[in-house]
Amino acid sequence: MKLDTSLVARQYEASRPVTAPLDGAAGSPLAGAAADFAETLRQGEAAAMSAMTNGADPHTLVQALTQTELALETAVAVRDRVVEAYQEILRMPV
């Protein structure tokens, strides 16, 4: 089955407003935490690339990787708690 690429592009463009964040969501604590998490990952990647290409300070690399690991462990812990709460809600009798 061959799809017309222009049709797919039009459908994607039509669905973009639906998935866009709400106006008030930009200042929410969750959005701020997600932005901080993404920035921590970017800094870790930048430090790793710098260490591989320029031979940057290894202490900076270790510090950036430790911060990235801590951020990832925190995100996984939050995700696990959310999934656990959702499962608990599903078990509740109606």
Automatic annotation (TrEMBL):
Give the main localization category. other
Q: Which residues form a coiled coil?
A: none
Named from the GO MF annotations, one term is:
structural molecule activity
Enumerate the subcellular locations listed in this protein's record, separating them with semicolons.
Bacterial flagellum basal body
User: Which GO terms of type biological process are on file?
Assistant: bacterial-type flagellum-dependent cell motility
Extract one GO cellular component term from the record.
Answer: bacterial-type flagellum basal body
Q: Pfam families under this entry?
A: FliE (PF02049)
- Which InterPro entries does the entry link to? FliE (IPR001624)
Q: Which UniProt keywords apply?
A: Bacterial flagellum, Cell projection, Cilium, Flagellum
Write out the similarity annotation. Answer: Belongs to the FliE family.
Check the record and name the NCBIfam families matching this protein: PRK00790.1-5
Protein name listed in UniProt? Flagellar hook-basal body complex protein FliE
What lineage does the source organism belong to? Bacteria, Pseudomonadati, Pseudomonadota, Alphaproteobacteria, Rhodobacterales
Corresponding gene?
Answer: fliE
